[in-house]
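Sharing a chain and its predicted structure for anyone who wants a worked example. Both blocks are below, sequence first, tokens second.
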Amino acid sequence: MVSPTTELDGPAALFPVEDLREMYRRMARIRQFEQAASTLYKATEIPGFLHLSIGQEASAVGACWPLRPDDVITSTHRGHGHCLAKGLELAPMFAELMGRDAGACRGRGGSMHIADPRLGIFGANGIVGAGLPIAAGAATAAKLRGNGSVVVAFFGDGAVATGAFHEAVNLAAVWDLPVVFLCENNHYSEFSPEAEQHRAKLDARAAGYGIAYEWVDGNDVVAVAGTVSRITADLRAGAGPVLLEAETYRWHGHYEGDPERYRLVEEVESWKQRDPLLALRERLRAAGLDDDVADGIDREVAADVEAAVDSARSAPFPAEESLADFVGSPRADRPEPPAAQGEVFRMMDAVSEAVEHEMTEDPSVFLAGIDVAAGGNVYGLFRGLADRFPGRVRNTPISESAIVGCGVGAAMAGMRPIVEIMYMDFIGTCLDQLMNQAAKLRFMTGGAVAMPLVVRTQFGAGRSSGSQHSQSLEALLAHIPGLTVVMPSSPAEAYGLLRAAIRDDNPVVFVEHRLQYGLKGPRPERGHVIPLGKARIVRPGSDLTIVTYSRMVQEAAAAAEVLAAEGVDAEVIDLRTISPLDRATVLDSLRRTNRLLIAHEAVQDFGVGAELAALAVDEGFWHLDAPVVRVAPPAMPVPYSPGLEQAWLPGRDEIAAAARRLVSEQP
């Protein structure tokens, strides 16, 4: 065990007696809240899972003691104490655990996801370690604003084994972020003792990341408060991140109902002798206060807890008609802008100019990703942007979870981050931050937070990039409620859609096709912004509807011209936004043409085409004069060899052939 770097001579040396009394009150609130929650859970008044922090009150109260309202915490699935210590009230906490509409998250989050971003509580988290990249994002926002705010990221010893821990701490170290990574080491990762989970101690890990490490007795609230007060003062003055280990213990099992076969009763009882509340009572006595003071506080807290439980019990459950509330931020209607008619420019110019425009107009916009600064990204899209916006174009390590998580945390803190994932294939390495964090946090906080985040990426088959650099994964992303997925097809579309995405209050995955970066088209007016969620008719027609998106729009348009010479009039629709899907435009076209052909570069099975086919068969069935036809690659990895890749990837010839078959079908 490592000793604290600063000796604490006694409470009088650091905190007046009034502070000690308030620390006791806050710990008593957490203890009695958790005890009441345990009772309510056993009485089936709390549904779902329940993870209690009884025994860990001192680390929560001590760590939050020096925090300001504009400081941020991120938490764990065992986060009730952290939320209470940062200022969340008892009644909305109980109501949230009971699933009531008066809950802190309107009954949408529950115990493992309790949060209130308005208080700087960026959320408990059901995914172990997932809050750490979000904390790095909140700290990035603090650093960019230069307002002296700090972040405390709580995590347990089990989270040290996750990639999220490594990526977040490394990113914070590289960027010198004002964040305390506070490990509440309670010696158990779920049911496994610490010794079975790790070989390296946290002090060695901190040294490996090149950041400071400190140890503190996590059952001594004065020690924790003193240590964190000193660390946060240094962070506010410009110091870099610190890894703080607070040694403590949870009295209850991993979850309520845990049979606890993995530890001895004697071990639990020995830790109970180090009860943090009893330890603080000793300090109060040493300061000249008798037990009547603490007893009185206990009675006052008990009355507050009872009143809060009664209030939560009387609160209604969310109304059924509110089922879909908070899935996304409202999106204002935008008119379709005039067609672009300016000088010719390239798709890559469109992307860089859209980002530059928004960064010029809005200081909350910043860009982060691998080699986006000096290199301008792997395709050089942003060369020179870092010089124009110092500090706002940020190179990251190769850490996709940290990159997206940084965007999530910064967006929660009110910034408008644009983060880049170099290839769409790499989405799998950061899927948690997209699927469980960015897409869900507005919903799980009951609408208390917006998520103005753009995740830029690119894809494309046709240049022998192989199976791990060519995939079109939009169907996977579109299946995640809360995400918007955009795939532009031309320079003007890329410019207008990307600007709309940056301005939007929802998480948007913006997918460019790398084979189109050199594609040329007319430059739109500088104010050109395209509405998200709206398809466009590229070519009107009457004999069949071809629905597609991204680079396949050019192939479909070329096929339509070939068909026109043969007397077949094809309407071509560019979806532009994959999710939310513009069903109305597709159905309206189907009413007029009575035939539907869908083309995309993603593999056919379970793709966007399948969704559109289901839409046609469901809502458009009586307008169909022929079966729905899909043109897409077979369900297999993208081949490397050029000949095989071309055989795998359909284009204008395959679209035209499918259209001929379709129009020959008799109704």
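Comments welcome. Residues 195 and 662 are 65 Å apart (CA to CA).
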